[in-house]
TrEMBL record:
Keywords: DNA-binding, Phosphoprotein. It comes from Chloroflexus aurantiacus (strain ATCC 29366 / DSM 635 / J-10-fl). This is Response regulator receiver. SUPFAM superfamilies: CheY-like. Residues 145-210 form the HTH luxR-type domain. GO terms for biological process: phosphorelay signal transduction system; regulation of DNA-templated transcription. The modification 4-aspartylphosphate is found at residue 56. The keyword Disulfide bond does not apply. It comes from the Bacteria.
Length: 218
């Protein structure tokens, strides 16, 4: 059985210990490190390259949003799951834009948390119902100046959908049977044509346009 490696980042030691105690009971999940601050978490991620990071948002020093942004820069393959007590708009949207694949509240059941970790490892998003409702409202808000998707080529549409599903360039290349260089070119064209800054904005655009679903359950 292939192990899913997990890094815990939370400034409360008791919370980290509770998460570790539960996750270590899962045969396919291994906690490989803990950090009590964002800065420490980024350095551990650089060293350990975990599959999944469980991230609190409110921490001393750099917060979870900035930590997510820095962590994705040093370990792009790591999937970040926000695990917090807050579902406020001013926290949800920045965290997802920074690169978090899932946003969960700390009242989640242990079993659902394990499901979310496995889903994140597959590149699938899992959202707390309150967060999903906020995102759907955001996605349904008209954007009069948004670039039309019709200007993308069919192959660029294929790449856009796979980016929105959380696939890496290598995974997209394997799926479409093309080179990684070709995938990078398509992504560059997508960003340019749609006036988007990064892959996260591509995912949000695709969700708003209903080009891919928000996966909440298996």
């Amino acid at each position: 059985m292939e192990q899913i490696t997990v890094l815990l980042i939370d400034d409360h030691r008791v919370v980290r210990q509770g998460l570790r105690d539960f996750l270590e009971l899962q045969p396919d999940i291994e906690v490989v490190g803990e950090a009590g601050s964002g800065a420490e978490g980024v350095e551990l991620a650089r060293e350990l390259l975990p599959d999944v990071v469980l991230m609190d948002l409110v921490m001393p020093g750099i917060d979870g949003v900035e930590t997510t942004r820095r962590l994705k820069a040093v370990s792009p393959s790591s999937q970040v799951i926000v695990l917090t007590s807050f579902a406020d708009d001013d926290k949800v949207f920045p965290a997802i834009k920074a690169g978090a694949i899932s946003y969960l509240l700390k009242d989640i059941s242990p079993e659902d948390l394990a499901h979310a970790i496995r889903a994140a490892c597959r590149g699938e998003a899992v959202l707390h119902p309150d967060v999903a409702a906020k995102l759907m409202q955001e996605f349904n808000t008209p954007r009069p100046n948004e670039a039309p998707v019709e200007q993308l080529t069919p192959r660029e549409m294929d790449v856009l959908r796979l980016v929105a599903k959380g696939m890496s360039n290598k995974e997209i290349a394997e799926t479409l049977i093309v080179s990684e260089k070709t995938v990078k070119t398509h992504i560059s064209n997508i960003l340019s044509k749609l006036h988007l800054a990064d892959r996260t904005q591509v995912a949000i655009y695709a969700l708003r346009k209903r080009l891919v679903p928000i996966d909440e359950e298996e």
